[in-house]
Request: fold
Amino acid sequence: MAAIYSLFIINKSGGLIFYKDYGSSGRMDTNDSLRLASLWHSMHAISQQLSPTVGCNGIELLQADSFDLHCFQSLTGTKFFVVCEPGTQHMEPLLKIIYELYTDYVLKNPFYEMEMPIRCELFDLNLSQAILKDRVSLLGR
Amino acid sequence: MAPPAPRSGDAVFANVERVNAELFTLTYGAIVRQLLTDLEEVGEVNKQLDQMGYNIGIRLIDEFLAKSNVSRCVDFKDTADVIAKVGFKMFLGVTATVSNWDAEGSSCSIILEDNPLVDFVELPDTCQGLYYCNILSGVVRGALEMVSMKTEVSWVRDMLHGDDAYELRVKLLKQVPEEYPYKDDE
Reply:
């Protein structure tokens, strides 16, 4: 059972800088993941414009029959989103944790170049731990 | 609704990892000293420190936002307050005050009474033009740029030059709109 299908991070201009899938469902190839990332970036921007609410910050949750998509955008414009099983709880705190991991293990890596694809082992490691912990707590419930 | 932004960095400061202040101060001193040796000119060192600060600032802002739980600032006044009360506390362990607003509310002074960077520093006669803490102005400029505020940051008062406090003048030049479409030709 995989509660989380995949995780995406897109930079402020809509480029995919990180993609990881968990489990077999919803797996996609590189082209598809890039396409989805830029599509989401645009949809997010359009939603901000179309929203009747003043000061709307874009779509936070997209619910479909076969998946939920939770999105978190930092004030600097980087977007983090997870695709997960419908009805999966506690994705917002998880996205916040991932944002913190990103600031610690990606941005503080002196050899990481801003806005470029993330290739940081420490980030991968800590990320899988965070996701695993999340999964264990889900199973426990 | 987002919870109201905390107006004190004490809680965040207690939760982030810290290093020995002396190690930090001495490391910074070593960097400045090395820059003086490498670049030879004080003006160049000022510029380099500012650039280093900028590079730090553009990355540091995300950590600040991720860990401080502040919400979006309503105006520049709010921003200056958050920098002084939460930002400086979180990363330097000291609190600054904001004052000397101009009439338009677009420039202000951030005043530091206490500055851990200079604990052991005395400027020699040969370095009188050096803004020893110029890295801080770069950090503030870089961080604000990432949240769409173009600013100009400079030192007005410097205790190493005999003033009674550190005064950082922050001037808001332009607020880049966050909404699409971005004006590409600007």
Notes: The domain at 4-140 of chain A is CATH 3.30.450.70 (Beta-Lactamase). Helices of chain A lie at 30-50, 91-107, 121-140.
